[in-house]
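REQUEST FORM: STRUCTURE PREDICTION
Request ID: SP-0412
Submitted by: Lab K.M.
Chain count: 1
Length (residues): 211
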Amino acid sequence: MEQPFGTLYILAAAKLNGLKLELPPFEYGVTTKTPEYRAKFPRGKAPAFESASGGFRLVESGAIAHYVSASGPRAAQLLGSTPEEQGRIHEWIYWNELELGPVLIDLIQWRLGTASYECGKEEAAAVALKGHLAHLEESLKGRSWLVDDQSGPSLADLTVGSAILFACRFYIDGEMREGIPHTMAYLRRLREVDGLEELFTMNMIEKRKQG
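STATUS: Completed
RESULT:
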C-alpha cells in the first residue's frame, strides 16, 4: 500500500510500543487534496495522524513519531530516560532533519521523477552525503545504537536508520555500501529487532541511476 514518506519510523515506534496504527488508502497528489482530508488537515500535509476517537490530530512526521513513542510502555527506551539521553536522541533527530534529510532529498527526488536533474545540486549533495556518512560511520564504531546500547534502539535509531535505508534503495549503491560497514551492520541490527523485520527489509539497489 502506498504511504507518504516519513511513515517508516512512525510505524517502527508503534511496533516497539505494541500499538496498532490503521493505514487508510493513500495516493500521492490525490488524497491530500480531497475535501474530506482537508476538513481534518487544512494544510493538506502528509503524513498525518488522527486518534481513534477523532479528537486529536497531528501533522509533521517528527511530531507524530514523538507522540507514538511517548504513548506506550517503551517510551523511556524510545525517548530517553534521563535529560542527557533525551538530549542525545534529539541531537540525532535534528541532525537527520536539518542535515542528512535535505541532502537525501536533493539526491533522490529526481530519481523518483518528482524533480528535475541539476548537475550542480547533485554534485554538492553527493559531497555532503559523503561527509554525513563518515560522521555516522565513526559514531557507530564499537556501538550497537546511537545513544544507549543497553536499552535498545531509540527514536534516534529509527529515524536515522529509516533515512539511510531509504537512501540505500535509491542512491547508496553496492559499491558505496562497501565503504560504510558499521552503518550497514547497524541497519541489519535494526532489522533483527523483534517486530521490525518487515519494516526494515533490505531492498537495496546495486547501481544508482546516473544523471
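NOTES: The mean pLDDT is 94.
Reviewed by: T.R.
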